[in-house]
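Summary of Year 1 activities. Much of the first year was spent building the evaluation harness for sequence design. The harness presents a backbone, in tokenized form, and records the residue chosen at every position. We chose the following record to illustrate the format because it has been used consistently in internal testing since the harness was completed.
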């Protein structure tokens, strides 16, 4: 009887082992099939197409920075239009040295000139106006006339030169000298003027006051710059007299 029970128990254990191996093998096949489906190109394509639209249309950092700069420029234009027309920077420079905004060679000595030397004042104005101008252009295409309009901006400034002696007695006045006339596609904010005064007849040696009155023909505003100059035929002597 003991041998019979032993044989029955051994048969049951073999059946249980076989069932366990069958379950493990089926589970392995199921896991492999899932991994295969997840790694298939079709599944990856579906996953990409289901990503959020916000991620697909988000602009890059460069676009954001450009938008920020343009917004800042519009704010600057608002402040500009509330700024009085004046000079933010001016100095005497060497004749012919102004090659662009902030590009020049400073005159040395600063306000001492030789008889007959051309006197050039470099000025960076701010607060000037921009007058809109409508530019119309027409073209023919396919037998029909096409008309396009573009908005341009006019910047226009003139200057008066008033030359006085050191006591303030007026000696000569030169009026309505064109010093800045520009038509641009943009509302330019960086603009420089070169106010040129020529000694057609050399000034007598001595000290003078030159008053520059700059007029903005667009806004109707004006400002004045007063400069003391010295005419001396010995530049080295004049330079040493300026030193402390």
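For this record, the design step produced the sequence shown next.
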């Amino acid at each position: 009887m003991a041998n019979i029970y032993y044989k029955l128990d051994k048969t049951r254990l073999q059946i249980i082992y076989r069932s366990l191996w069958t379950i493990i093998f089926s589970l392995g096949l199921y896991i492999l099939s899932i991994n295969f489906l997840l790694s298939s190109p079709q599944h990856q394509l579906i996953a990409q197409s289901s990503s959020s639209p916000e991620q697909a249309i988000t602009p890059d950092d460069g676009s954001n920075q450009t938008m920020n700069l343009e917004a800042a420029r519009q704010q600057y234009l608002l402040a500009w239009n509330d700024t009085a027309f004046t000079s933010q920077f001016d100095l005497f420079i060497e004749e012919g040295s102004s090659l662009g905004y902030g590009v020049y060679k400073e005159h040395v000595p600063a306000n001492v000139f030789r008889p007959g030397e051309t006197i050039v004042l470099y000025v960076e104005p701010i607060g000037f106006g921009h007058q809109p101008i409508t530019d119309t252009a027409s073209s023919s295409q396919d037998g029909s006339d096409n008309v396009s309009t573009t908005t341009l901006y006019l910047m226009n400034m003139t200057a008066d030169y008033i030359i006085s002696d050191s006591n303030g007695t007026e000696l000569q006045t030169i009026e309505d000298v064109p010093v800045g006339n520009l038509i641009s596609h943009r509302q330019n904010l960086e603009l420089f003027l070169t106010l040129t005064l020529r000694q057609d007849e050399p000034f007598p040696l001595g000290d003078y006051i030159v008053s520059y009155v700059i007029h903005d023909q667009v806004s109707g505003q004006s400002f004045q710059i007063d400069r003391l100059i010295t005419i001396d035929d010995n530049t080295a002597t004049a330079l040493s007299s300026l030193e402390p």
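Confidence is low (pLDDT under 50) at residues 1-8, 41-57, 237-244. Quantitative recovery figures across the full test set are reported in Table 2.
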